[in-house]
Sequence to fold (159 residues):
Amino acid sequence: MYTYRPLMDKDLLAICNFPQTPEELLYISPRSEFPLTPEQILSLLENRYEPTVLIEETTGQVIGYANFYKETDGTLWLGNVIVAPSHRGRGAAQKLMQTMIAIARDKYRMKQIHLSCHNTNSRGLVFYHKLGFEPFDVRITTIDGHRKMITIQMRLNLV
Fold:
């Protein structure tokens, strides 16, 4: 039903349409401005590993995106996770996460994956918890120069 491959330039416009609101974009990329643009995605890739798209096999449509950043001591951080609105609630997010977990474990030989999830993203927090991610820290981030946002740091052991 789904397959994956590395991000290609032709995927950028599709990914830009995934965040439907400024709040959704904030969840996946706090430094980006709504609406998301290909230039913003490319700028984020300057310090990212393994930008990956999830593809619906029957249509060839790009329906998910994620990447890694900040590799330290057997850990990769997962970031920019998003699924097309048309495929939410249909198993695409779970497949994307399983793919990224397998890449971290099998290709990079990582012991853990970490991620940050904003406290207001209750749907994301529930989803990550169901996948086995556990909270280990809380960070307070300033966005827009003045707004405070709490992010919950979560981890998943891969060994």
Observations:
- DSSP finds five helices and seven strands in the chain.
- The longest strand covers residues 62-72.
